[in-house]
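Onboarding guide, step 5: your first structure request.
Type a short instruction followed by the sequence, for example:

Predict the 3D structure of this protein.
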Amino acid sequence: MGAEEALKVVEGVSQVYIAKGKKVVHLDLRKESPTAEELAKLLLGPTGNLRAPTIRRGKTLLVGFHEETYENVLS
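The system replies with structure tokens like these:
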């Protein structure tokens, strides 16, 4: 999934957690308005595709894997 499709995944969510290695970026889209370019930079991996795994639960989107974040958000 490239940039255009990845940005569509974000539509309708209010919280986004993006794991990049050991770092997690949290965006509250109710308070923040990143540009499409900024979002794409966070969502896409080195191959230019959406980071995996990607999970949408209600209005929360988890991108990439970070065990602690998964435990906190999904439990």
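Each response can be followed by summary notes, for example: The helical segments are 3-10, 36-43, 67-74.
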